[in-house]
Design a protein that fits this description.
mainly alpha, 3-stranded mixed beta sheet, 187 residues, Four Helix Bundle (Hemerythrin (Met), subunit A)
């Protein structure tokens, strides 16, 4: 159980993580400049390893997490004592969104705009969260040694996962035929 008498994370710490979370929206905006020139085949192809989503599916997943998972987690943490939260089932999350539509059939610009809107709403929700709520914890996992994380740790993990997804996506764009075709995609 969380002790509400201990001081919460500093305002500077919260501002830093909020800025890191907002980075996703800024990065999507920056990518929008070049992504329109990327052939649809590159945007819809999954990596040969089969361990990742297509670029369009990745943007859809980022939006769906910000729309349907992370805000619910924060609401539960704010209203329940030590709620038990499950990691998101990415496949089910994508299947449940937009009536199970094929995300690869969506326009990439619309997906990127959806990411930006969803992330801005999530960051706005966190900005409104009272500082004392940032230290409230949720429990992840079962068994004798469950993982306890406060809102700060959860949002830090979200920012890290987003960064890793964007890095992998950018690498895939760079390694595609775009560089050979005269399009410079930064690493």
């Amino acid at each position: 159980m969380t002790d509400d008498t201990q001081p919460p994370h500093s305002e500077e710490t919260r501002a830093s993580i909020l800025d890191q979370l907002a980075y996703l929206a800024r990065e999507a905006d920056a990518l929008e400049q070049i992504i329109g020139e990327v052939p649809d085949a590159v945007l819809t192809e999954r990596p040969p390893s089969g361990d990742d989503w297509s670029i369009k599916e990745t943007f859809a997943l980022l939006a769906r997490l910000d729309e349907a998972v992370y805000p619910r987690w924060v609401e539960r943490i704010a209203s329940e004592d030590e709620p038990r939260l499950d990691p998101p089932d990415e496949e089910a999350l994508l299947a449940a969104g937009d009536d199970g539509a094929d995300w690869n059939a969506h326009d990439i610009t619309n997906l990127m705009e959806r990411v930006q809107e969803a992330r801005k709403a999530f960051v706005g929700m966190l900005q409104e969260l009272p500082p004392r709520m940032w230290k409230r914890e949720a429990v992840f996992g079962d068994g004798d040694d469950p993982d306890r994380r406060d809102v700060y740790a959860i949002t830090r993990d979200v920012a890290r996962r987003d960064y890793d997804r964007l890095r992998r996506m950018t690498r895939r764009l760079h390694e595609s035929e775009l560089s050979a075709a005269g399009h410079d995609v930064p690493r």
